[in-house]
Give the backbone structure.
Amino acid sequence: MEGFDIVMVIAIILFARLGVRLVTEYIRLKKDQKSNSNQD
């Protein structure tokens, strides 16, 4: 059971990092779209 806990912790950390990266990319894309629409 202890090995399973370690695997779960690693999986959670990897998913958290992936989620943070996706959210930051999404925010940056929305910001870029906003600045582009303001220039038009």
